[in-house]
Amino acid sequence: MNESINLKPGQINGETGIWEMVIGLEIHAQISSKSKLFSGASASFGAEANSNVSLVDAAMPGMLPVINEFCVEQAVKTGLALNAKINNVSIFDRKNYFYADLPQGYQISQFTKPIVGEGEIIIDLDDGLQTTVGIERLHLEQDAGKSLHDQHPSKSYIDLNRTGVALMEIVSKPDIRSPQEAGAYVKKIRSILRYVGACDGNMEEGSLRADCNVSVRKSGEEFGTRCEIKNLNSVRFIIQAIQSEAERQVEILEEGGKINQETRLFDTSTGETRSMRSKEDAHDYRYFPDPDLLPLEFSDSWVQKIRETLPELPDLLKKRLVTDFGITPYDASILVEEKDYVDFYQKAANGKDGKLTANWMITELFGALKKENISLSNSPISPENLGQLIALISDGTISGKIAKDVFAEMMISKKSPSDIVKEKGLEQVSDDIEILKLIDKVISENEDKVKDYLGGKDKLFGFFVGQVMKLSQGKANPGMVNKLLKNKLK
Amino acid sequence: MSDLLKFDLLSASIALKNKEFSSLELTNAYFEAIEQTSALGAYLEIVKDHSINMAKASDKNFKNGTARPLEGLPIGVKDMFCTKDIKTTASSKILENFCPTYESTVTQNLWDDGAVMLGKLSCDEFAMGSSNETAAKGNVVNPWLKNSKMSPGGSSGGSASAVAARSALAATGTDTGGSIRQPAAFCGITGLKPTYGRCSRWGIVAFSSSLDQAGPLTRTVSDAALMLNSMAGHDKKDSTSANLEMPDLMNYLDRGIRGKKIGIPKEYTQDGISDDIVSFYEKSINWLKDSGAEIVPVSLPHTKYALPVYYIIAPAEASSNLARYDGVRYGKRNEAASLDEMYEITRGNGFGEEVKRRIMIGTYVLSSGYYDAYYLKAQKVRRLIKEDFENVFEEVDYILTPSTPTTSFELGKKQDPLTMYLNDIFTVPASLAGLPGISLPVGLDKSGLPIGIQLIANSFDEPGLISTARVLERSAEFNFIADGAAK
């Protein structure tokens, strides 16, 4: 092994040289719709088992699917936000397979003609660089139900609440080259989905899941054989699973083995992937157009109307924040990560020092919220109050140091900073006479040290400043203390 | 003998309005007829208490002057229609105890218009068959030449047998490749398959979704018009249902066909058609000519591919549509150690031979590696067949063909599946094109079995179809009654 090699993320230094990863993601995003894709049943999460099941969902004889228009709109909106081609004619196909939690014996999906075609998004990497990931397609499909195997020693139970819930499957091109990029890609997709309101992006509740296709190759070679890791429900797991899968593949290849194209599962307890089914065992889904549904057709003008409802999307918003508020691109990219963040920021920074606001929000507020495990939407500090705090700092009413104490108080009492400052008398003292009084007191109490200072011990200056500040309980304007002390001690 | 059985749907409706008899009397007469003809095996389920209640309610409406279009008229329902709280089995063992909690749109339309339900009628299992021999509960007998035990045709064999035997005033059927028209032809009655999309498929057990269409089996063309008036209509619950108003068909009974052009496709006169049918086909052509129509020879060049195309598309859709009968949520289940085994035993025991054959064919033609050669090619040819009709309908108004190549055949005379499939050779093309067609009786063959002639119209021209069929009906003067009919 050559120790001096500087590996880039996504590279694996093997016995035979450096390998790179080729990764493509299929993201399943549940559409934020009250009802299911083809039935009127509720799509809400967490209801009692089998309480949100219509006759259509249970595939009773003679029941027919009817498309939910709202879901079509969300797919188009998302497609537009992914800079993708909207297909004015698309087709629903049946994907046929038997399983106990698939009542119809087929899933209604889109196979040959999806509603959204090719597009691309820009993702931000940790090192401040950006890269583009191509979107292959986005299609609409139904979710399946849930099998519960642990409720009875010999029986399985079926919950059909999820059956028929609307999903968008967003398929990337194999453009991703590292687990970190995969993570950034998922975050970006999630952020876009939240901006357009098409999906809540909640990975814990399963609203967003990813299947990862992973292969490895030596730089410049053709793509290797890939394995698909199914159903990953956190960014952390996606990163872990891809890394471990790629390492597994490198090990096999370097031992002269071959990769079997197969579907694998990620075991979160071991951090490794294991085989689920091989290509030979793969289903023949016998896709064919669903004869119960007409092709999905819409006009350009309808798409245009949807386009007009799109909110300002993260990439453009980021540029605007840099220009309008004078913040760094890095801060801007953090703020646009979530729609919540940017909304909060714009309210807080309105008419204030944008840069200072960004610093306080990202460092202090996010830090405090993280420590308390509170989401921004439940923040005890409102955007208006954060803005007020920034204003108090900017106009010199309080010092940055006092501001931290006020901030801590705001986190607890939810009071406005000006109330806290007034109640506790924390206004900064900038009055010459007041400060000179304090200085005189410090000098008279420390005559020895004054002598030493005047005798050449310059370092003692800091001591005097500290004493004056202490005496003022931190409220004295530090700049003025400095200036007045220097004059006094000449 | 009950005089009440002589009334057809339209005349009974008028007599009821004139208070010549009550719906209760009429309904009871039909229950006697059902009993008398029970050996035909047309009914799977009778719902006498329910019928009596409906009849009484109808009589009240007549009394109050609030009678609806089908008020008090007792009819039968093919077992493919889901009927609320009434067993619906599609003639299959796999659904033998299935009782829907909902009512199909078409039957609901009929009850909303005042019709009285007599019961559920047998059919081929999941409407797959042309002889009614695939029904789980056994054969249905054609009331014609009753001692010879002839097939009523299929799949709406129970409906056709009951209407011909006068144990139902009219009946609903479903037609996928000829399942209304062929049994109507075999049983000497009228059967109308509307344009695809005219009647909602919601609540009808699906066989082949792109072909299935509900329609009436009746004694006369006017009765078919009266029934279809109520059955048809746009339904938001069926995405393939046409959002088109259907004109009141009763206004089209006597419009005649003067100046209309009738196409005679050369592909429909081929070897294998019985001589009697050929002769009545020629008679029918002349009758229409004598009534002022112009006869035009036409060509539908892709006709010979219709049957093979049908037997790819229909089984393909069926293989998917029938996947839901898996023993998990409703219907029959055979317990087993594993899920796969449970599927195998449940479906292996629950489905009959013909249904299994079609599921196998359908699964095969959709399989990867075969999809393009079979299913996709069949869809392309289906398009060509449709275009054949579109071209011909630029020249002519209606197309006249025989309904079937032969008249009815004896039950139990085992025919191989391919010979059986040939029964639908004249009805399948219009089904593939989604066009409306009607079969009506025009005469008897030498052995005394009814012969049916088919008229095909352009999409959504049911009004013209009715006008033309009425002309043929009047000329044919088919007044025979099956020897096995209730007396």
Brief write-up:
Chain A is an alpha+beta fold and 490 residues long. Helix content of chain A is 38%, strand content 19%. In chain A, strands 1, 2, 6, 7, 10, 11, 12, 13 and 14 form a 9-stranded mixed sheet that branches. Chain A has a 3-stranded antiparallel sheet with strand order 5-4-15, with no helix packed on it. In chain A, strands 3-16 form a two-stranded antiparallel ribbon.
Please describe what this structure looks like.
The complex is a heterodimer of chains A (490) and B (487). Chain A is α+β, with helices and mostly antiparallel strands. Chain A contains 15 helices and 16 strands. Helix content of chain A is 38%, strand content 19%. In chain A, a hairpin with an 8-residue loop joins strand 11 (208-218) and strand 12 (227-232). The longest helix of chain A has 20 residues, at 235-254. Chain A is elongated, with a radius of gyration of 30 Å. The termini of chain A are far apart. Chain B has a single domain (1-487), classed as Amidase signature (AS) enzymes. Chain B is 37% helix and 13% strand. Chain B has helices spanning 9-17, 23-36, 48-64, 105-112, 157-164, 181-186, 221-231, 275-290, 306-321, 339-350, 353-366, 372-395, 417-421, 428-433, 462-476; strands at residues 43-46, 74-78, 116-121, 171-175, 190-193, 213-218, 261-265, 294-298, 398-402, 437-444, 450-457. The interface between A and B is large, with 31 and 44 residues.
